[in-house]
Design goal:
3-stranded mixed sheet; alpha/beta; 8-stranded mixed sheet; single chain; disordered N terminus; about 325 residues; about 30% helix; 11 strands; 10 helices
Length: about 325
Amino acid sequence: MWNTPFVRAVAVCIGALALTVTAAPVRAQEAVAEAAIEVTAVPGIPHAQVWRLAGDEARPVVVILHGADGGDEAGRVMGPMLARLGYAAVGLPYYSPDWGDYGPPPQFPDLPGSFLDIRVDQLADLRQALGTMPGVDVERFALFGGSKGSEFALIAASRYAWIDAVVAYTPSDVVWEGWGLEVIEAEGTRSSFSFAGEALPFMPYRGFVDGLLAGDAADLRAIHENGRADHPEREAAARIPVEAYAGPVLLIAGEQDAQWNSARQARNIVAAREAAGVETEALIYTEAGHDLIGDGGPRDAHKSGGTPEANAAARAEAWPQVVAFLARHLQP
């Protein structure tokens, strides 16, 4: 049921996330390989969880923002990895796909089942709730997003000065159109994200519904690129004002990304921030695709782009830099 063409066509996701910690730095491995990880629910935030090493030490926060796959898998996989590096890793499920008769029941029926007007400002609620928890240091606060999660993270960073660092895998420089069963017959009318009760201006797609019907044959990158080409007049309003964020940003992208043109979008982000005198780190891999999160290993569970070998090499090369970036900006 899950693999119906209708559902597969909208799986713009952060990767299969079948990850291990075998390529993590040796020092970190040796220090925490046997340490217990505590998993705690976040009070008042549905389905949010914190992974952290046991003990009284207050750990810096790294919020994991999943892509269009939704649910909590990104948190369940990346949470322990980041916890073993010394962080309070927070999984924040904010969307749980509900395609009615075309897909399985949603994992979390109480979360939005359509990717429409997702509240970016829920991060402020999360931070406030985390501030009530022992062993969590909200004064050191980073975002770790992939794909649509990177879009979320960059929007948030452009609005909240208390965000200390952003890791954005396969990012977007604009807010994109939203999707869901209720807008199948109303293409181009709804945004993916909102802030303070207002839908954010967005860039429409071209041929989204046709892509749904095409299933595995859908060219998701073209759906994004053609929509952008059709609407140059909407570029300025839809653009995420990344230069408004003075903090550090690390971007990871692949030229062969089959989901959207994350390399182009990463370069646009770098250019906007450099023009404003704000430094950005960018890792762009010529032969890699969309599936770049983690520390290496071959996997290609969806239409990611790039080759399995190139994607694995990019993951293995980028992960130590992600680890060093977070340590540099969050660890004392």
